[in-house]
Amino acid sequence: MFRGKIKGLVVILFLSIFVVSCGDLEGNNDHGRTAGSHSKKKLEVEEPKEPINIKHEITISAIGDILIHNSVYDDARNDDGGYDFKPMLERVKPFLSDTTITIANQETMIGGTELGLSSYPSFNSPIEVGDALKWAGIDVVTLANNHTLDRGEAAIQNAIKHWETIDMMYTGAYKDEEDQKTIRIYDTEEGISVAFLSYTYGTNGIPVPIGKDYLVNLIDQKLIEMDIEEAKEKADVVIVSLHFGNEYERMPNQSQKDLVQFVADLGVDVVLGHHPHVLQPVDWVTGEQGNKTLVIYSLGNFLSGQNEYYRQVGGIVKFTVTKTMENGEASVRVHTPKFLPTYVKYNNWQDFEVIPMYQLADSDLPNADQRYKEIKAHMSQWIPDLKFIEK
C-alpha cells in the first residue's frame, strides 16, 4: 500500500512537469526577457566613458652665434695639426644635451682647411667645429646669415657634406634646388614633429650666384610665407630663425618687430633671432589669430673671439612643447621658457671656454654677480616671470 502511494505521487509529479512544459510550448511564458531584465537581477546603467586625453611633451634648446674667429681656431689647434673645440664647450654641454632637440646658429661655414682657414671679414672654419657641436648635443644648425657666401659655393658644399657625414640636420643653406625644397622636419620619439626654417637679411654685399638661390635663404616675405604654410601642414611646431637687426644693439629695432609680427600672424610658434652679437630680450608676440609666438630677438654670441663684454655674453633658451590628443583632435602649445646666460672666457686669446654666468667668480669676470643680475633683468624685461636656469 505504501509503495502504491509513492507511485501515485510520482505520476502526479510527472503530469505536473508535463503540463508546465506544454505551457512553454504553447508560448505561455515570456521568451522576450533577457538576463538584464530578469526580475531577480538588478539592471546596471553603464557610466559614460571619460574622454581620451593623451599628452606628449618635448623640450627644445637654442643657442646663438658660433662665430669662429682666428683666435678661436688657433686656440683649438692640436699638435698634430687638427682641431679640438670640445674643451671650449665642456662646461655648457650638460645644458645642451638635456633636451629633446638643441639648435645652434652656425654663423661661419665649416669649409675645412683645404680651402684655407680665415676669419673676419671673410670666414672659413675647420670642420671639427661641427664635430664639437655634435658632441655637445646639438641636433640642428641654421646656416642662413650674412657670412654664408664669404668663401663661395665651395665652402658651402664642403660644409654640407660634413654636416651630412655626422648626421646633423641643417637649414638655411642648401646643396641644390631639391635640397632647398625639402622642409626640415625633426620627428621625435614622443610623436611631436618640429619644422626648422632659416633666413638672413643679406650676405654682406656678396651676390648670390645666378641660378643658385638655393645656396642661402634670403628674407623674402613671399618665400617665408610659402615655407611656413608647407611647414605647418607637415609639422606640429614651426620654428623660424631670422638673421636680422643691427649689430651690437641690445634692443630690437622696428624692422625686427615688424618681421616678427609678420611671421607670428602666419602662425609660427617660435622665432630665434641672430646677428646683433649681443643679447636682446625674450617676448611673447600675439598673432592675428590670437596665437602666441615665443620670440628671442637675439641670442647673442655663444662662442666667438669678440672682445667687448656684451659680445662675450650669450645664452641658452629652453622651452617645452606639449601636444594633447583629445577625442581625435590634436592641440600643440609652446610654454615655460627658461634662459641660461653664458659668458665666453679667455686669457690672452687662449683657453677659450663658454661658462654659465651663474657659475662665474670675480676672478673670471670682475663684479660677476652684479653683471649676471643685470643680464637677467635685461632678458626678462618683457616677461617678468621668465625663469633662469641656475643648477
Give a structural overview.
The chain has 391 residues and is α/β, with parallel strands linked by helices. 27% of the residues lie in helices and 29% in strands. Strands 1, 2, 3, 4, 11, 12, 13, 14 and 15 form a nine-stranded mixed beta sheet that branches. It starts with a helix and ends with a strand.
Secondary-structure-derived class: alpha/beta
- Give the strand content: 25-35%
The residue fraction in helices comes out at: 25-40%
Order of helices and strands: HEHHHEHEHEHEEHEHEEEEEEEHE
Q: Give the overall silhouette.
A: globular
Summed over residues and divided by their number, the pLDDT gives a mean of 91
Through-space gap between termini: 104 Å
Task: State Rg.
Answer: 33 Å
Number of helices: 10
Which residue ranges are poorly predicted, with pLDDT under 50 across at least 5 consecutive positions?
1-41
Largest sheet features:
9 strands, mixed
Strand segment count: 15
List the helices and strands and how they pair.
Blueprint lengths: L1 H24 L27 E15 L2 H7 L9 H4 L3 H4 L4 E6 L21 H9 L3 E3 L9 H14 L3 E3 L5 H5 L2 E4 L5 E8 L20 H14 L2 E7 L10 H12 L4 E5 L4 E8 L5 E8 L1 E4 L8 E14 L2 E19 L2 E7 L11 H12 L7 E2 L3
Parallel strand pairs: 1-2, 1-11, 2-3, 3-4, 6-7, 7-8, 8-10, 13-15
Antiparallel strand pairs: 1-12, 5-6, 9-10, 12-13, 13-14
